[in-house]
Amino acid sequence: MKADLPINFVLKISKIEDGLPKTKFTHQIVKYEGFQLSYNEENEQADWTAYILTKQMIKNSTAKRKDNFREDKNIITETANNNDYKKSGFDRGHLVPAADMKWSENAMDETFFMSNMSPQYPDFNRKTWKNLEEDIRNWASKNDSLYIFTGPYFGNSTTTIGKNEVKVPEYFFKAIYDISYPEYKSIAFFIKNENSAKDYKIFAITVDSLESLTGFDFLPKIEHVETIENNADINKWN
To answer: Could you list the residue range(s) of the whole structural domain that residue 48 is in?
Structure first.
């Protein structure tokens, strides 16, 4: 992979704003202490979330989880609420994992805003998705610094839950960039939202492929970033 990189290529990202996706639409973008998201009122959830996770953040993971699920007053058009999920058969699935924000009480607490939730089947959320999230934290510890995108993909889904008609995604995605010099790399995952546990590794795809599926352009301000977006080898991460 190194040989394919342009001479003097540097993936320099110091803040979340440096890598926000380029999309065909404009929705409200909200900045929190540890992450940012684009909120889609029609679907009552985020289009995408973006954040940086570092080895030091993992080391400083001391905050206690409080499960303070609540509406997000930062969203102009208002968000879904807990009643939308009650008895729906779906979990309130985190897009930005609470455990990734344990380096700050406030940052972790903000992951429980309903703007960061999406309807996930229980087995998907508690097994498949959870295992992927845990491994990403391990990768951050090994690789020093990651830039992570997460979001729903609706496909042909017409299913909604609750009075606010929260749309149920058909798939979920993650795009992960290792932004630590000199071993720059990326990988993506595109996983069906279904009530069964699967090995997330079999759903690895290239970031190039994910961009084609979603229409999003990740890290659009970084020149030559496409040179590290064409590999889906999970072995490079473990």
So the answer is: 2-236
pLDDT value for 183 = 85
Asked if pLDDT for residue 30 goes beyond 80, the answer is: yes
CATH number at residue 156: 3.40.570.10
Q: How much is the pTM?
A: 0.95
Number of structural domains the chain divides into: 1
- Give the up-direction half-sphere exposure of residue 37: CA atoms within 13 A in the CB hemisphere: 29
Residue 120 scores a pLDDT above 50: yes
DSSP per residue over the chain, as a string? -GGGSPTT------SGGGGPPB-SS--EEEE-SS-EEEEETTTTEEEEEEEEEEHHHHHT--PPP----B--TTSTT----HHHHTTSS-EEEESS-GGGGTT-HHHHHHTTBGGGEEEE-HHIIIIIIHHHHHHHHHHHHHHSEEEEEEEEE-TT---EETTTTEEPPSEEEEEEEE-SSS--EEEEEEEE--SS---GGGGEE-HHHHHHHH--BSSTTSTTGGGGSS---GGGT-
- Residue 34, pLDDT > 50, answer yes
Active site residues: 94
pLDDT at 181: 84
Reply yes or no on whether the pLDDT at 43 is more than 80.
yes
Q: What is the residue-averaged pLDDT of the chain? A: 95
